[in-house]
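Long-time lurker, first post. I've been practising inverse folding by hand and with some scripts of my own, and I keep getting stuck on stretches where the structure tokens seem ambiguous. Below is the full token string for one chain I'm working on. Before anyone asks, I'm not after the true native sequence, just a reasonable design that respects the backbone. If someone could post their per-position residues I'd love to compare against what I wrote down in my notebook.
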């Protein structure tokens, strides 16, 4: 549902979306997905959505119609160009190849073309399975790995910086929910900014911009307040 929301938002703005990897859950839906949205300032815009998202709905699989609460983590990292300064020692990575999975009989499922790269010192993992060749998947996985390593380095640097200079939005504890999507009330609530609206169906169909704008405005205000202190 979250992946559809973000891709629909991108479609409304005519932003290209590139899917790197999708992992299907055992019963239904997606267990995880990695994709890129190619647009000006896409990272700056979407970084405010990093954190834990909470969904409340009436379970479609419960014949007693009870409420169900689910959680999903959203990670946002910038796409790095080949020239970006992030060195990865080949001796510190482990590369595994496997057969792509998923529904259907796509050609990508017939060979061991999927690639998973593990950065051994940090345990950070990146994988790609949607390209047709193992080489293409490895190149895409390395781009994702570099982005995650850079994000981890930046997060470590932020942790050492003064608390007064850190954004209230960007420093949210990812173990805590940042937003709730309440299906029975058709309501979306952002717990950092206080934003609330009753058009959840439209938001999940891609009308996400007002929510993002409220987070970006709160982030900017917090940064300005920190500079004045």
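-- Answer (accepted) --
I ran through it position by position. Result:
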């Amino acid at each position: 549902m979250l992946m559809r929301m973000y891709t629909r938002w991108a479609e409304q703005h005519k932003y290209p979306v590139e899917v790197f990897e999708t992992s299907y859950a055992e019963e239904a839906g997606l267990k995880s997905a990695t994709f890129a949205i190619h647009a000006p300032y896409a990272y700056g815009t979407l970084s405010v959505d990093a954190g834990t998202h909470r969904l409340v709905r009436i379970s479609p699989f419960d014949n007693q119609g009870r409420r169900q609460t689910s959680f999903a983590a959203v990670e946002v990292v910038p796409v790095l160009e080949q020239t970006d300064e992030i060195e990865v020692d080949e001796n510190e990575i482990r590369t595994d190849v496997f057969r792509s999975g998923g529904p259907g009989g796509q050609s990508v499922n017939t060979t061991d073309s999927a690639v998973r790269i593990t950065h051994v010192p940090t345990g950070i993992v990146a994988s790609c399975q949607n390209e047709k060749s193992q080489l293409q998947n490895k190149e895409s996985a390395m781009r994702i790995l570099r982005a995650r390593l850079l994000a981890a380095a930046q997060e470590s640097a932020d942790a050492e910086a003064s608390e007064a200079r850190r954004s209230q939005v960007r420093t949210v504890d990812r173990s805590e929910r940042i937003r709730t999507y309440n299906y029975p009330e058709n309501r979306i609530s952002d717990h950092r900014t206080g934003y609330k609206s009753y058009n959840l169906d439209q938001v999940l169909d891609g009308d996400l911009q007002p929510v993002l704008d409220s987070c970006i405005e709160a982030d900017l205000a917090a940064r300005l307040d920190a500079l004045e202190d």
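A couple of notes from the structure itself: Residues 86 and 150 are 7 Å apart (CA to CA). The helical segments are 2-12, 42-46, 134-160, 200-204, 209-228. Happy to go over any region you disagree with.
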